[in-house]
Amino acid sequence: MTALSSEELTGVGAFLRSEGVPVTGPLRASRIAGGRSNLTFRLDDENSRWVLRMPPRAGRTPSAHDVAREFRVTRALSGAGVPVAPAVALCEDESVLGAPFAVAGFVDGRTVQSSDDLDLLDDVTLAAVVDRLVEALAALHRVDHGAHGLERFGRPDGYAARQLKRWSGQWELVGNDDATSMAARELAERLHASVPDQLSTGIVHGDFRIDNTLLRLDDEPAVAAIVDWELSTIGDPVADVAMMCAYRLPAFDLIMGMPSAWTSARLPGPDGLAAAYELAGGVKLAHWEFHLALAHYKIAVIAAGIDHRYRAGVGSGPGFEGAGRAVPEFLAAGLETLGAQR
């Protein structure tokens, strides 16, 4: 689905009004590009703007498109010192659009997805943006999740083991190549054999990088909102930093379907990003090599899931055709990282 029909928009408008949202006149919708998982639409009426997020109607894998999680965490983080879009309403009645959906307030900001987008920023602005990104992630990890109503958002302990179980299960659903499956199995087995103790606990975003934020790029660059919270939970913040760093692998371009902003040589490498995060007041990055290898494994499974939808005929566009070729690259990087463990 690339559009919402007039009948569907009428249903969305009726739902929003039932939630007390002042919708004036008929809704209009336009697709916001960039997502490989959930679908994102801008909604407009005569006076207001919103963003609607929903999973694909077909080819979904369990828990991989959880808009309810996005809604709950962003609503809880309002006023917590973390930039998020205002949570407006959650509809779990699939009869409206064929899937649950969440609506948020529209946030003005620039998305930086491609290397061309990034190259519009001068070096001074880009350095400031990187600082604001790692500061936003560190601020998220300092939030007391219990004090913000998220004490049941996820188990506080055993995060790495639970992640391995979850993503190994996802691999069983979406993996299809024998040679690649052997590498995935080896990496998963080595990770299982070296799960460390968890030394810190907090809210993890699960998919943090520059293109999952909206930026303000005026005199003082800032993160206007962190978006795409579908993988968020309570867990080990070190794993969140590791995901941010693992996405720096050039093979991420295959998932994005273009030279991406986050693989640019103008940005700090994984070690530089990790050091900047700690300097910004983030948690101590204990057991770093393990978490970095786990992050590469998770991204490999995400890429395999995109390829799975492509092969099922329910995904098309930039990134879908190339995502399968990224899978062995991320698995190899994970194995290499574990080989470098001290």
Task: Please characterize this protein's 3D structure.
The N and C termini lie far apart (48 Å). Strand 1 and strand 2 form a beta hairpin. The protein folds into 2 domains: 6-105, Phosphorylase Kinase, domain 1 (2-Layer Sandwich), CATH 3.30.200.20; 115-339, Aminoglycoside 3'-phosphotransferase, Chain: A, domain 2, CATH 3.90.1200.10. The protein has helices spanning 6-18, 67-77, 115-118, 123-142, 159-174, 178-192, 237-246, 252-256, 270-279, 288-311, 323-339; strands spanning 28-31, 39-44, 49-54, 87-91, 101-105, 202-204, 213-216, 222-226, 233-235. By secondary structure, it is α+β, with helices and mostly antiparallel strands. The chain is 42% helix and 12% strand.
Count every beta strand, where a strand is a DSSP E run of 2 or more residues. Answer: 9
Q: By helix and strand content, what is the structural category?
A: alpha+beta
Helix content: 40-55%
Counted by DSSP, the helix tally is: 11
Major β-sheet profile: 5 strands, antiparallel
- Overall shape: globular
Strands ordered across the widest β-sheet: 1-2-3-5-4
N/C terminus separation? 48 Å
| Average pLDDT level | 92
Helices and strands, in N-to-C order? Answer: HEEEHEEHHHHEEEEHHHHH
The CATH architecture category of the largest domain equals: Alpha-Beta Complex
Number of domains: 2
- Runs in which pLDDT lies below 50 for 5 or more consecutive residues are none
Could you tell me the radius of gyration in angstroms? 19 Å
Looking at CATH, the homologous superfamily of the largest domain is: Aminoglycoside phosphotransferase (APH), C-terminal lobe
- Name of the level-1 CATH class of the largest domain: Alpha Beta
Per the CATH scheme, the topology name of the largest domain is: Aminoglycoside 3'-phosphotransferase, Chain: A, domain 2
Beta-strand portion reads 5-15%
